[in-house]
Amino acid sequence: MLSRLVLVSGHILKNSGSFGACLVQASRSFHQSSQSRAPVPPLPEKGGKVRHGIFPEELFTLLYPKTGVTGPYMLGTGLLLYMLSKEIYVINHETFAAASIGVVIIYGVKKFGPSVAAFADKINEDKVAEAQEVKDQAMASLAQGIEDEKKEQWRVEGRCMLFDAKRNNVAMLLETNYRERLHMVTNEVKKRLDYQVELQNLHRRMEQEHMVNWVEQSVIKSITPQQVQGIWSLH
Amino acid sequence: MADKPGMVEWDMHMALAQKRLMDVKLGQLSSWLGTRDFTPNGLLGSVRGGYERYFNKYINVKKGGIGGVAMFLAGYVALSYIWEYDHIKHDRWRKYH
Lengths: 235, 97
Description:
The complex is a heterodimer.
Chain A (H helix, E strand, L loop, with lengths): L1 H13 L5 H12 L18 E2 L3 E2 H11 L3 H15 L7 H130 L2 H10 L1
Antiparallel strand pairs in A: 1-2
Helix pairs in contact in A: 1-5
Chain B lengths: L3 H15 L10 H7 L4 H20 L7 H17 L1 H4 L9
C-alpha cells in the first residue's frame, strides 16, 4: 500500500500536472525504445507476491521442489544463527534501535495499512474517472458532430427540390408577366385599330350626311317657285 | 565447409548469450559471464534494465503492496550494514569465533 502512495507521488514527481493514467503511459513509452502505436496494455492488478513483506515469493517456489514448505524458513534460521554465531551480524546498540523501529513500523503497517491503501485507491480511481469522463465527453461530442453532419447531408439532398420549386416559381412569374404584356399589347393595338375604324366610319357618315344635305339643299334650291305653284295647284 | 567448426562455436556462443541467468547451468556459468557486456554502456544498460524490471513488477501496478518499497528499504539497510562492517567489527563480543 505504500507502493500505491509511491506510485501516486512518483507520478507527481515525474510530471506535474497530468492524469495518473496518462502519466503511466507516458513513462512506459519513454522506457520503450520502439515507437509503436499499439494501445498500451493496462497496468497489472497486483504486484509480484512478497511474503512477510520482504521476501519475494520466487524464493519459496524455487526451494519448494527440493525442500518442501519449510525449506526457506530453515534456510533463514540457519543463516541467521550462522551470522549471529560467527558475529557477521554484531549485536550492539544499533540492534536495539533497529528492533524498536521494526516493531513500530510493523505495528503501523498492520494497523493503518488497509485504510491508507483504500485512500490511495480512491485517489487513483478519481483520476481514472476524470480521464474517463473527459474521454466520454469527447466521444459524445464527436458522436454529436457525426449526427449533425449527417443531418446537414440530408438537408443538402433537399436543396435540389428547393431549387426546382424556385425555378418553377420564377418560370411561372415570367410566363405570367409575358402573358400580361401580350394582353396589354393586343388591347392597345385593338384600341388603336378601333379608333381608326371609327374614324373612317365617322368620315364616311359625315361625307354621306354632308352629301345628302347638299343634295337636299341643291334640290330645294332647284325647286323653283313655279314648280312650287304647280304642285300647289294640283291639290 | 572449412569454417564449419567456427560457425558451430559462434552459434553456441550466441545461444548462451540469449539465456537468462536462471536458465544457465552451473558449468556454463563462467562462459555465460564471458558473453555479458561489461562496457560502461553495457553496465548502465543492465542497471537500467534491472531497475525497470523491479519497478514494473512491484511498484507500477494498480494495487501494490508494501513489498515493493519494503524490499527496497531492506536491501538498502543490508547494503549499508555491509559498507559499515569494517567499523562495526570493533563492537564484536568475542575475539575468536
